[in-house]
Amino acid sequence: MRAHEVGEAVADNSLRAQDVLEYATIGGARALGLDGLVGSIAPGKRADLVMLRTDTPVMTGTPHHVAGHIVFQAGRGDVDTVLVNRRVLKHRGALVGVDLNHARQLVEQSLDYLRSQIPDEDWERAINPPTGPA
Hints:
This protein has five helices and four strands; from the N terminus they run ααβαβββαα.
């Protein structure tokens, strides 16, 4: 970000995909003081798992660089199954126990309410923020 701000390019980056994966799992749990409970797969910890498909186009070649594919390639369409504390929340790419139509209605109601409370000029600025220096 700093290089970009001054018009330079980053020529060398020591950060690796494995580091990013660690930050997103045990590192995040450690930062929150929850690494004894979550963040890694171990006996006695809560089983929060995200299982990815490896047969999608972007995940081709996964066995050659697993962390790289997870960090740089995987997207929400590659998520097959999600378990949180032993509860299945997503299976075969579909949410489990979620009424999507009702969720969409709630989102629309929320947006309608917000739109009614925010003046037109502020709404437009939020939707299309100005570019360039502030």
